[in-house]
Amino acid sequence: MLLSQSYREVWSLRSKLIFRFIFSYFLLYILLMFTSSLFKTPFKWIGKSLLGFSYDFDVSGYGSGDNTYAYITLFVNFVLAVIITFSWSVLKPNRKEYNKAFYWFLVVLRVFIILAMLLYGFVKVFQIQFQPPSFVKLLQPLGEFSPMGLAWTYMGYSKGFGMFAGLMEILGGVLLIWRRTATLGAFIVIGVMTQVAMMNLMFDIPVKLFSIHLILMASIIFMTDIKRFLSVFIKNKSTEAYDFYHPETSKSYHKTISIIKKIILPILLIAGCVLGYLGQLNISDQNHRPALYGIWETKTFIKNNDTIPPLTTDSHRWRYLLIERKGKAVVKTMTDKLVRHTFETDTTENKISIYSQYSIKDSLNFEFDLPKPNLLKLWGKIESDSIFVTLEKKDLNEFPLHSRGFNWINERPYNK
């Protein structure tokens, strides 16, 4: 085997070259993931002078993991790994084995993957990463969705599916804690993250590089036990128990490590559950519903005593007023333009203040009346124009995504 977790006195030249490269590459990758911003000056120079990126780009990527700077960092990562591998091979040509270094390298990979799987798993279980379709999404025509927006809405619609995906990621990460279950853990991680990577690739989600690297890391761990896996599952042959190499043979050391693992596991799981629950409370729709929560559809829009007809070419007439979260409101005009506002409601005085999203100086002050739970009347001024708007609350159960639910029995496909 090229790579193995059992002790080998002499490694083949190919095994040593592969180890030197993957050791250099992946440790650099993990290091640069947290420190690449410190090298923005030389990295930007490399991008513009050597790689020919003539446009300006931001180091942060605005939340994208596949931005230009990330690819420059990956290029530097690869080149440095090749240089280190070559230099290492020249300086240490007669080194017979790297058992100890490979052991600690796998420990680093396992810890990194464990933390990544627990993080991504818990944010799915508690519906933090993928949230239910917002009012804006419910009213948005399918053709206007971006591929990523469609994928995010698909995942966010079903809490159960998101929880399942998250639990599988957590399971893969937890199994990597122990070496005897690491092969199974790596196998699960490869399966789960391949599905994630394919979604990232096919739906243009900018976490492609990271998800692919997690698959590669898990594959390295899995490949160390590939011979036994093939014997059992492919060749239908018996196999022997794995003789794991460990640089430390002291029984007290192994006992201490075992105790630490037993302590850390519940701490990680409890911390993940607590932080996930608190995160869910912070973003949950139920905990941020304002007084006028709902999709309000404009029935009459009167401007300076003239009733404005609902023409789809009118960019000023409101079509919907979307009030979904405290302090936020979105106006969707007849041309489907979305205007986002900061929103304040005084239910005592029956007054509303709507501010520009980017300024608290430019405000629209309205009075309102709620004669029925599903009927809202607003009046006030927009600049010098007097406005009177009557809105009707849309029943969310009119949307099949809200009302359909789960059904064991389907007499015919309900595919709208």
TrEMBL record:
UniProt keyword terms in alphabetical order: Membrane, Transmembrane, Transmembrane helix
Positions of transmembrane segments: 21-39, 69-91, 103-123, 160-178, 185-203, 209-226, 259-279
Protein name per the record: DoxX-like family protein
Organism of origin: Winogradskyella jejuensis
